[in-house]
Amino acid sequence: MTASATPASPSGTADEGGHKLPRPGSFYDVPGWFYNGDVVLFDWFLGRQSRLDQRGDLLEMGAYMGKSAIMMRSYLRPDETFTVCDLFDSDQEAADISAHNEREMRGSYATLTRRAFEANYLSFHERLPRILQAPTSVVPDEVEDGSCRFVHVDASHMYEHVHPDIDAARAALGEDGLVVLDDFRSEHTPGVSCATWQAVLEGGLRPVCVTSQKFYGTWGDPKAVQDELHAELKERGDCWLQYQDVAGHRLLLVGGRKAAPPPVPASRHAKGTGRAEGQGQRQEAGRGPGGRPRPTLARRAARELLPPIVARPLARALARR
Ligand SMILES: C[S@@+](CC[C@H](N)C(=O)[O-])C[C@H]1O[C@@H](n2cnc3c(N)ncnc32)[C@H](O)[C@@H]1O
What we know:
Number of helices: 10
Radius of gyration: 21 Å
Strand order of the largest sheet: 3-2-1-4-5-7-6-9-8
Number of strands: 9
Largest sheet: 9 strands, mixed
Helix content: 25-40%
Shape: globular
Bound molecules: S-adenosylmethionine
């Protein structure tokens, strides 16, 4: 099967078969397996790359309905390319995938169509990414070596596919690039666990951190980024953190289920604003779910450390500022 790199197709309200296409009013309406701790970490790692002016393309293997892709796209610069590779609704036999992968495809992703991905994506961004509708085995031929700074591997969960996907990620990444491996320790994905730790023990992959869902690593030097991440998450105070040594590698465990979410991409179908929200804009920083203001560190400290008679007026003054 050949990959198709595709220009934008129009988003409508129904596909050719008359099926209703999604119109998510918020990032959180997009179906997927992309949870709060990882939303926080994607924002942190991609935000850090922007701050440090690290250049390079973005790549996602396994996009489903676009949830993580929509988030990743928000950190792309105009001169960079975002490529997503997914089978979407391709003919399974033509895709030459294993019987196990076919079971996974028919079970979990039965409702997936490329049109639904596109409709979701175009609710948040003006233009589609470069789409490879193909098995991930096409990635090494389609993505230039050393061109990427961030690769998310979230396609098949079979060892026979994940192992080459990790090799493809390594080839695609430039120096100090970051790879994220999904489902590296889920009950139903032993093949991903095996491929991940094999890459660590035999392939030079160095862990930065893990959440309950994802492994974050680099083939560069992890120390600076790991120290910085630990320091910042510790200061935030809303993530569970622990260092562990695993086979001589320092691993940072991060529990971010209850962490305050970062600003997420805003949908053009958002309700209640009286206007269509702009492309690639993000929901207001400093606001949590439901638009509640998130207290700043200074306000939290004032509330927790000072007597109420002093803390309340001070917190109000800080909020006004
Ligand atoms: C877990 S979902 C991706 C979830 C998405 N990243 C998110 O956060 O919402 C896995 C995706 O991988 C795709 N996939 C499975 N096996 C594949 C393969 N061998 N090649 C390309 N895509 C594959 C499926 O079509 C599905 O859309």
